[in-house]
Amino acid sequence: GDQEAGEMGLAAVPGRQAAFRQSLAAAVQYARAVGCPRTHLMAGRVPLGTDRAAVTSAMETTFIENLRYAADLLAQEDMTGLVEPINNRITDPRYFLNTPHQAAAILEKVGRPNLKLQLDLFHCQIMDGNLSRNLETYFPLIGHIQIAQVPGRHEPDSPGELNFPYIFELLESLGYTGYVGCEYAPKEDTLEGLGWLHSYWESRGLQHGGTSKAAE
């Protein structure tokens, strides 16, 4: 979509299906060029001046239609589509997709194996909390994890509500082998902001880079 015009994705916006398909085709070209197997299919915002409840049904229908189209196109490229709930309490009051429960229900209706849940724990904590149970419940649907401390959206070792060493161990115990995206704003610069990762590796007996000391 056109971010300068206030758009945050098009997948659930009625009347913008053609623009969504055009954007998706471009995204697939980029993903193919850089060898990225996953694409975030952004739902978009409830139109300005519109009551959310009044348009929910139409937006969900559009979302499902566009997700099926995207899944079939991405399958030809051996790619996965991701949908991400974004909290509407702080980050984006008009964003259509807000909770993992809503996302899971839509994914079930779409019924495509190459569509997965992009679970950002920052948004999930703000909307619902109950992270351990939500991770366990929705683990079969998860295709990507993102992290940030709550409420400041900084590094995971910054002051806040979430116990990330516990969460990382839970992800390992569940068998998660994918990437964990650092979707946060560093309090200082990027390298300094990765100090938490070095400390975490050391606490697990790993060297910087995640390699085992024992293996060497």
From TrEMBL:
Gene label: Hyi
GO biological process, one term: glyoxylate metabolic process
Domain of life: Eukaryota
Every Xylose isomerase-like TIM barrel domain range: 9-199
Entry keywords, A to Z: Isomerase
Protein source organism: Pterocles burchelli
A Pfam cross-reference name: AP_endonuc_2
The protein's name: HYI isomerase
UniProt GO molecular function: hydroxypyruvate isomerase activity
UniProt xrefs under SUPFAM superfamilies: Xylose isomerase-like
Region forming the signal peptide: none
